[in-house]
Amino acid sequence: MNSDSEVPTLEPIASFQPSLNTRAWMTAPHPKLPILATASADKTVKIFSLTTFRQLSSITGGHKRSIRSCAWKPGTRNESVLATGSFDASAGIWRHDDHPGSNEAHNEESKNDRSEDEDDDWRFAVILDGHESEIKSVAWSAGGQFLATCSRDKSVWIWEEMEDDNFETVAVLQEHDGDIKYVRWHPEEDLLASAGYDDTIRLYREDVDDWICVSTIDAHQATVWSLDFEPPKNPSLIDSVGPDAARQKDLQELEKSGPRLASCSDDLTIRIWRRTPKGGAEDKPLRDRIPSIIRTNNVDEEWLEDACLPKRHERAIYSVAWSPKSGLIASTGSDGKIVVYQEFWRDSHDQDEVRSEGPPTETSREWKVVAEVENAHDIFEVNHVCWTVRADRGRSNEGEEVLISTGDDGEVKMWSIQRGT
Amino acid sequence: MSDIRLYLVEHEKSRKEASQIAIRTAERLQSKELKLLDLIEALGEFLNDNDPSVRAKALAYLADVLESVPRGTVSRQQRELLVHFLTTRINGDAEGLGAAACANALMKIEEFGKWDAERAAECMQTIIQSLHPLRQIRQQSERYAVLKLINLLIAEYREAIHGLHQASSDFMPTFISLFEGEKDPRNLMIVFSILNVPFSEWELGAYAQDGFEAVFNYFPITFRPPPDDPYGITAQDLKDRLRDCIAACGSFAPYSFPALLDKLDSSSLNTKRDTLAALHSCISNYGTRTVSLYAVTLWDALKFEILSVQEEDLADKALDVISEIGAQLSVGRPQLVAYLRPISKECSEHLEDAPTKQSKAAGQILEAVASRTRECANLLVAHVVPHLVALFEGADSLAKRRSLLEVLVQLLKASVKVFGDWVTIAGRGVADTQEDTYNAFSEHKDILVTLLVGGQLSVPANEVAFKKICLEGLVQLCMCRNLLQDQEISTLIRQCLDLILDDYEGKVELRGPAIQALVDIAHQKPHLIIDHAFPRFLSLIPDNDTAGDLGYVPVLDAFSNLAQEAKVFDLVILRLRNKLDAAIREQSSSTFLCALLSALLYALTHTSASLDGTDEDCPLYGQLIFPLLQRVGDGSNQSNFANNRVYELVGQLCNVVLRRQTSAFQKKHLIEIYNPVDAFGESSENVDASGTLLNPLKLLASSYIVAALQRDVVPIQDLRKHLSTLSDIATADSTSVEVRRASLRQVSLILNKFLSPDNAEFAVDLLCSKPIGDFAACAHKKDSARLILASVKALLLRNERKLIPILPELRKLLLDPEYGRPVARGFATILQSDDFLTKENHCKISPLYRQKAFSLIVPPLTTSFKEESDAIKRNYLVAIMSIVKSLPYSVIESDLPSLLPLILQMLDLADEEATKVAAVETLGLILTENSAAMASYLSSLIPRLLKAASSKSNSGAVRETSLRCLANIAAAFSVDAVIPFRKSVIKELTRPLDDSRRAVRAAAVKCRTKWIELDEPKDGDISE
Amino acid sequence: MDDNKDNANPVILNASDLPTRHGESLLKKADDPIGIYLGGLLSATQPIDDPFDEALSASESESDRDFDEEIDAQEIYDLIAPISDPEHPLSLGSLAVVNLPDIHISRPSSARSRISTVVIDITPTITHCSLATVIGLGVRVRLEQALPPRFRIDVRIKEGTHSTGDAVTKQLGDKERVAAALENNTLRGVIRRMLSTCE
């Protein structure tokens, strides 16, 4: 545990009302609209408004047991599509027609306050049955083409939406030998990552016409609870790289490897993984390679540990989120803390800086804790944290980024980060 | 004859109408207006009508007529004629309507005059031939009539029917199958009692199996009586009757035992319970020879119920069956040996890996069987004890040794049960043959004594539980009749004395059992205790306490405990009295005197001996009480004796003895008893010239004497003077607390027991109306209020009419700004039980005093509650609750509407802890008695209780009682009445879970689990 | 008969060996040595409950009010010892499945944190007991219902006492799997029966 040097605390902005009064598992911000969807143990999903912090509607009746996860389908036109994953082993697709003009990007100035004219017509469009036991996580691929679900039955299913309301199972991946906790898609490529109870992370790509596991990371010593990919053009390093040649080279290497992957685990560590780029032609991004029937053996990838964030959590870390705008990483877990980390270029002569352990420091970058808060949800465990853009009147500037935390006390809270310069 | 036709028509519409017609005919028969013969003839054509229902109804008409005809009207030959005629007519037509009518008629006629044997036999014969099987009569009420007739024949003409059985071999099978398929519980009850006769009294021969199967297919009975069951037959009644049939005769054994053992594997617990009960009856009825054939097979099946116990009650029932077999076989030695060998062998094996679940079960089996007969005990002891001793000596752990000793103690207890102890012989009669009194333990007593005594000494000091079981073993050995020698018992007595008197680690836990051991032995061998224990105790009780240490207190405690045993009681009292005399003679401190007096009081109040004397004489009085009174009387204020604690104890001693004596005895000795303690007596040393009391302490003793006297033994001549002096002392500032309390007690005792009608007015005025009247101006309000309330209580208890106008006035006392609150609390004394105004002290306790107190004191408060100021309102609330908290629910029930809102307000009272606790407890009481009354208050009660349970300003007691009340709510109401509150209550209860007091936390846990369990099956996450 | 029980004949402790809190009541006796004898007749503090002055006697004296009784291992033991074994009408205490020395409470790690942790190591009666998970779940549910939410509850299988001890411990430590399991009605029925003996 690095020294308790004075670190600014996260400031609570508001908690969304009314409280769910029962365990809330996770919250998913809508890709465009200023709304959130919170999955809860009382078998419902609550839709909150980011502008008024009030509950807009409650999606009920679709599942017989707790809803563990939900995800908004990206890139939808004047309708919102929400996927839900539940302990009743089924996933649900819910549709809601958005009003014309209400689906501009949520940072538009327009005052379409949804709370008054919100009609509650969430339609339970499709049930995706197939898993044999509780579903733990659902995720849409970047373009919205694929939906991934994972479950305690040790399988990841990839569904593809044909015409409306007709989903087809594209792949059933049974690589893990235990309950699978989380699935996450690469922000650009059709690369899927899954984290499991068997302490491993596995990555999958579509090769020719079936999905295969291209890489397995088994460095964690306990259940891996959550993952998140680095945003494609991570500003936190690009803006501050400066003239130094070594740093320029390191930056190019990073771009060649593509977005990195952050994972958090019950072994109290958060680690960053980086893909080793392969030399020669195969380097081109897979998308535009000519499909060939023969499966070439060069499709496997190697992901190595790039860094291990400073240890601040004393109990299981349930959630990690890599900010698409600022490149900061936030984590939370059973000890009720929320911690925010930032990546800095390492000054060779800086000794008193807070060092992050991890592999020998041939990389010229290091992670430091930039903000933290304890007892975020009173004495209860915090199950989830994610980044979103503020949409309420109190926001200081256009794209002010905030954190949303979801806890066992049934509260959903918004936090702001005063980043030290 | 229009009657018959009218009857036939009416019969369709309503049976009641039809029977009215029959009654009219009967009257005409009786008045000889109509002769029986003519009636029969008139019936003739109908009886032979070709429509069966007409025939049946005609018979029904005849039966109804006979039903209402008095005895004399039908002559003997007419009866003969009718019986013969009706017997031939019994048949199944018209769904048995005819048969039922015949049966009723025949039973009526039989009532008029007994039949002879062959008439009965003929009747049974026809029934069997024409109505076989009975279920052809579809109407169950009709079958019921026929069954009653059969039951009558079996009950009254048993020999005749038995004759039929002996005469033809196929009578029995047809008779048994007659009742096949009967389903109606009321009919079944009769079928079972009918069949029980042939089963238990006649030789069934080849038909035993048919008989058994006819009844066993009803086993197990799963009948659930309909809610409005008119006949009130319970499943248990049916089960008992069926069981009697199954157990009726030994020849059933080859079929019943296998069938029952098969049912023992059933998954339904109730079936298993019925099976075990049936087995028990069979074994006690089938007789030794039959039981011995199946004994071992039964043991092999039943042992699992105990060894791998699922339900405790099933294990107990199985134990009963196994021990019943032992009892049955105790007559013949070889069969018993054959039966007990596998039991003792298996139990011994299980003891090897003690302490396990099965070794514990083995102990239970051994104790159960050994406790039934001497033969069982001896055989089991002979086989198991040596094995047990060997295992003990070879045991590797103390836990194992202790569990083996526990089994030994179980066997010893069994042997005491069958052989008896030194005082009473158990089991067989007094004249035991030498062979009878042989106790197998005698072979092993020496090794057992050394082992148990050794166990006491050799084991490390902290192994207290082990030493306890050794002590218990030794005590049981002493109890066994004719087992230990006196000299061996004396060693145990000495060992117990060491445990009581020495200092050692673990003494706290062993001292009590050691004392109890001495008391138990005192019951068996009093002389040994007197010879060995008394001297040691008495040597440690000094004659005076100049030495100053209190070492004698534990000795006195142990010694006075011996008085529990009547046989040594007198000697304990005598020795203690001698020590007291010596102590006084040697000017010992009052502390020492109090210790001795307390020992005497403890002995008197804990003995099993009777303290009662006769009209003439009471040894205790002469030996102990009279000398004590003399010392108080002689007034020599010899400092150490004239001390309030001493006088109080002397008073208590006198009370405990005197209150049990007859009034004749009390009258005879009244002067000697009362004068010495009379503080106002004329004699000089009591009152000085200025009238101040020289010996107020005497009041402490005299109050107890006054309490002890019967109501017709009045100690005081001038009651009025006595009462006014007492009331002055009670309210004088200079009076000490003890004397004030004593005088208040004496006032209430005199008012309750000795107040004559002519003094009532004076007393009520002196002690109630006057002080209430000038309460506002009174100087010492609190003492005056105490006097008023003490007097009110005494008069209320005797239902004094003059008090009625006073009670509502009590409200005035609450208006005082300064003293209103303490007096409000003082109201509790009115209904609180105290040790003086009791039945044992011969007080008048009217049954309605609570009702009267409530109805006269509380309403004035509730009605004028609204207009009072807040401070007065709070006084009223405290006063009301001080009364209500001692009342049974029935008294306050009618006033709930006005009371409940006030009780709820009490929860918000600041710093009135006792009142709040009482308020919550009363709410709890109402909840248990009549939760409906609280239903409409739930939404205001639950939040208040939650607040009371978590706010730090409340005392721990209030927080705890509120949580208990909340738990009651969860239990008292239907689930859907409380479900709306469930989620918030469970969430709120997390705070008292973290209370700083452990007791409050425990209450919070119990309460929260009750509310969590309320969840409907599909509710969400259980671990909110 | 039903030899399908995992352990038909477990060793059972004697009730008097089970740890209790009676030590404290002995403490109380120390300050009034002779009060315990002769039925309290001699005890110094004669109870004179005078309802008139109740205000004082009824509410605890000041020292009582702030007399904090910390939640300690014995209290946790008393909460879980009476839980009954799913197979036998015997308590986990008497079967030595839960033992006082195997209960550890760790106070909040830093000044700001208010989270305490309770670690309970349970000892299955035999090494291949298939019911270890259910017993562990019963202990966890009982404590989650009975302890204030500031306690984190870690139920573990004691080292070396069970063939698949680590796997069971991992499962019991996974809050999500526990939550999911507790939504299954049959399992809740079993646990409710196990807890019913915790009057």
TrEMBL record, chain A:
InterPro entries referenced in this protein's UniProt entry, alphabetically: CIAO1/Cia1, WD40/YVTN_repeat-like_dom_sf, WD40_repeat_dom_sf, WD40_rpt
Start and stop residues of the WD repeats: 60-94, 128-160, 173-204, 310-342, 403-421
Region Disordered, annotated ranges: 93-118
One Gene Ontology biological process: iron-sulfur cluster assembly
CDD domains reported in the protein's UniProt record: WD40
Keyword Iron-sulfur: no
Classification via SUPFAM superfamilies: WD40 repeat-like
Residues of the signal peptide: none
GO CC list: cytosolic [4Fe-4S] assembly targeting complex
Keywords for this protein: Repeat, WD repeat
Biased composition (Basic and acidic residues): 94-114
Source organism superkingdom: Eukaryota
Pfam family, one: WD40
PANTHER family according to UniProt: CYTOSOLIC IRON-SULFUR PROTEIN ASSEMBLY PROTEIN CIAO1-RELATED, WD40 PROTEIN CIAO1
Role summary: Essential component of the cytosolic iron-sulfur (Fe/S) protein assembly machinery. Required for the maturation of extramitochondrial Fe/S proteins.
Protein family membership: Belongs to the WD repeat CIA1 family.
Protein name as catalogued: Probable cytosolic iron-sulfur protein assembly protein 1
Organism: Eremomyces bilateralis CBS 781.70
Gene: CIA1
UniProtKB/TrEMBL annotation, chain B:
Keyword entries, A-Z: DNA damage, DNA repair, Nucleus, Repeat
Location of the MMS19 N-terminal domain: 40-307
Gene Ontology cellular-component annotations: cytosolic [4Fe-4S] assembly targeting complex; nucleus
Limits of the MMS19 C-terminal domain: 555-969
Organism listed in the record: Eremomyces bilateralis CBS 781.70
Cited Pfam families: MMS19_C, MMS19_N
Top-rank taxon: Eukaryota
Lineage: Eukaryota, Fungi, Dikarya, Ascomycota, Pezizomycotina
SUPFAM superfamilies, alphabetized: ARM repeat
PROSITE patterns to which the protein is assigned, alphabetical: HEAT_REPEAT (PS50077)
Protein name (Swiss-Prot/TrEMBL): MMS19 nucleotide excision repair protein
Family: Belongs to the MET18/MMS19 family.
Known function: Key component of the cytosolic iron-sulfur protein assembly (CIA) complex, a multiprotein complex that mediates the incorporation of iron-sulfur cluster into apoproteins specifically involved in DNA metabolism and genomic integrity. In the CIA complex, MMS19 acts as an adapter between early-acting CIA components and a subset of cellular target iron-sulfur proteins.
Residue stretches of each HEAT repeat: 39-77
Annotated GO biological process: DNA repair; iron-sulfur cluster assembly; protein maturation
Compartments, record wording: Nucleus
Automatic annotation (TrEMBL), chain C:
The keyword Transcription belongs to this UniProt entry's keyword annotation: no
Gene3D superfamilies: 6.10.250.1280, Fe-S cluster assembly (FSCA)
Gene Ontology process terms (BP): chromosome segregation; protein maturation
Keyword Transmembrane annotated: no
Domain of life: Eukaryota
InterPro entries reported for this sequence: FSCA_dom_sf, MIP18, MIP18-like
Chain ranges of the MIP18 family-like domain: 74-149
Membrane-crossing residue ranges in chain numbering: none
Record keywords: Chromosome partition
Protein family per UniProt: Belongs to the MIP18 family.
Entry protein name: Cytoplasmic protein-like protein required for cell viability
